[in-house]
Amino acid sequence: MRPKTDLPLSKEFTDDESYVESLLEFSTSSTLLQTLCGGVHILDFFTRTPDLYSCILPEEWRNWFRLFEIEDILDLLLREDLTQFLNPSPPQEWRSGPAPPHSLIAYIHSVRRHLLSRSFHPPASPPKLDHLTTIGMTAKKIHEVSHVAHFVSTLTSSLAAAHQPITHLIDFGSGHNYLGRALASPPYHENIIAVESRPHVVAGAREIDIMAGLAEKPVVRRNKKAYRAARAAGTVPDWEKDKARFAPPAAASSATEGPQRARLETPPAGRGSVQYVEHRIQDGNLAAVIEQIAPAADAATTPALMTISLHSCGNLSHHALRTLSLNPAVRAVAVIGCCYNLLTERLGPSFKTPGLRHNHPRLSATNSAFDPHGFPMSARFATYIPPGGGEEGIRLNITARMMAVQAPRNWTKDSSEAFFTRHFYRALLQRVFLEKGIVEAPRGEGGGTYARGAVEKIAGQGVGEGCSEEVKAMVAERVGTMTSDEVVGYGERFRERRKELSVVWSLMAVSAGVAEALVVVDRWTWLREQEGVKEAWVQPVFEYGESPRNLVVVGIKG
Question: Which region ranges are annotated with the description Disordered (predicted)?
């Protein structure tokens, strides 16, 4: 299962070190990459003077884009074989038109060669999960869980063969425990410590465990004498509200009601075990969790742990990886991250995009500057200085990180058209706000439906809690009174520029794959910097087409 190289590289690179150095250099030296990957925002598209399109893209690119449909342009960016254009004698025509400019091909090639390969070639199909284990799962989740469970089990088996047996798997941010439930069930029989901070989610996961046959239904004793007396008196009891009233005498009561802070579920014969620990994860120190672990019947007294996580958001992935260095009992980690927009920043403040948009409190918190838990993790990325000089350290602002969760290779004609339409009307609404004096010009579904819906929200008739009362009143007065003809007029004025916005959005999404590569490679680099870590690698663990955040970061102690 161990890949030939530590990183899933494109064919352009044969070793990890040359790739990492090239990735760092490209991300810090390409002005166009930095512009498309965090330097512009779609809201500014119709509000800048001179216009954004002509400012950021070379004239020869714009002239060429004008000749082709957006579907052809997407094919060039994402799917077309570029070797034909990189030959000494490149073709002069492409799809009944002129060949793309050499500078455009060179940029697309530079981006592609620095993307991590997402091709998934499993040595064998994973065992099919039984229908009880998949309760509550979508088809996407079944695909993810079945492959990740098989990967984790294979990894623990290889560690056991190397005399490093794992006694428990720590599922970081376990949620509904889909992954843990699969690993505790046949054919894996693993012992799971499900760490989750939300009591109601834990309660729900326990209910699914019972339905899946992984845990026995608690036997709750009731005081039947008190119940019958209440019924005779004409009172219909509510078991949940009247637990104390109908509970049996203390000496005979069963301590099975209600969630406990940590409890080892009693599994049926032939199954692994699940123990839930309600714990708010704020760093990688697992001392409070480890002290609650009940030793498995067939395991040593001292647990040997592996931290796993499937799509842990933002800094939670960093915390999961750090368990390897902060806890002697943790012998290995296997972490699949997502939601890079929720990462905090270690080296500096976030780039704030203009407009009326209000950040959710959680987003505001993740944008805080100089957070030691944030990106980048590794010393190499934090201290990197470009060959030509410049600011120390790799930075990814909120716009770049939000774009990094795009999956342009999974776009279809319909889904990309929906993206373009939505962004066109949102950018157009920003133009309305500018002309009505609600926002200032930035420095350096139909449209009417969209505009009216947004105005209603901002004006306080929906979810406009992010705006002050003064702004809400201004929006209601200046925009809320617009006639239908006026709204439609805006769409007509800017309709010809819709394609320009679609081109820029596509370039941004494709370029942001480099940002995702930076996040993933930084995590791998951090593992390699840790004393005692013997092996570290990254590989795809399920199909990109099913779920695009498909890269697992693995670290193993010696």
Answer: 245-270
CA neighbours within 13 Å on the CB side: how many for 74?
20
Helix, strand, coil % in the chain, rounded to nearest 5? 45, 10, 45
What residues are paired with 170 via a beta bridge? 193, 307
Longest C-alpha distance within the chain, in Å? Answer: 96
Residue 311 vs residues 111, 129, 190, 282, 551: alpha-carbon distances, Å: 25, 20, 20, 17, 10
β-sheet bridge partners, residue 405: none
Q: Which one-letter DSSP state was computed for residue 384?
A: -
- Residue 166 corresponds to which tokens in the numbers above? 């794992």
d(CA 286, CA 292): 10
Give the separation between CA 533 and CA 527, rounded to whole angstroms: 7
Q: Are 283 and 244 in contact (CB under 8 A)?
A: no
Q: Which residues contact 432 (CB under 8 A, 6 or more apart)?
A: 451, 479, 482, 490
Q: Which two tokens stand for residue 224?
A: 């039947």
Residue 87: exposure state from Cβ atoms within 10 A (0-12, 13-18, ≥19): exposed
Q: Where in the chain are the domains?
A: 16-119+348-355+368-409+506-517, 410-503
- Residue 195 and residue 314: Cα distance in Å, rounded? 17
Nearest residue to 174 via CA among 309, 292, 38 = 309
Q: How far apart are CA 537 and CA 2, in angstroms?
A: 8
pLDDT tens for the 558 residues of the chain, in order: 678 899 999 999 999 999 999 999 999 999 999 999 988 888 888 888 888 899 999 999 999 999 999 999 999 999 999 999 999 999 999 999 999 999 999 999 999 999 999 999 988 899 999 999 999 999 999 999 999 999 999 999 999 999 999 999 999 999 999 999 999 999 999 999 999 999 999 999 999 999 888 887 776 666 677 767 777 777 655 544 454 444 544 433 333 333 334 455 555 555 689 999 999 999 999 999 999 887 655 555 688 999 999 999 999 999 999 999 999 999 999 999 999 999 999 997 654 433 334 444 544 555 567 899 999 999 999 999 998 888 899 999 888 999 999 999 999 999 999 989 998 988 888 888 888 787 777 765 344 464 444 555 455 544 444 567 777 777 776 777 677 787 788 788 888 899 999 999 999 999 999 999 999 999 999 999 999 999 999 999 999 999 999 999 999 998
CB 396 within 8 A of CB 38: yes
The answer to whether 194 and 183 are in contact (CB under 8 A) is no
User: DSSP label at 310?
Assistant: E
CA separation for the pair 302, 331 (Å, rounded): 12
Which residue in 106, 272, 90 sits closest to 191, CA to CA?
272
> Beta partners for 351?
none
Separation of alpha carbons 482 and 332, rounded Å: 60
Sign of the dihedral defined by the CA atoms of residues 288, 292, 296, 297, in that order: positive
Q: Give the integer Cα–Cα distance in Å for 116 and 343.
A: 20
Q: Mark out the alpha helices in 383-539 (DSSP H runs).
A: 398-403, 413-435, 447-456, 469-478, 484-494, 498-529
DSSP 8-state assignment for residue 312: E
Q: 506: which 2 tokens?
A: 């596509």
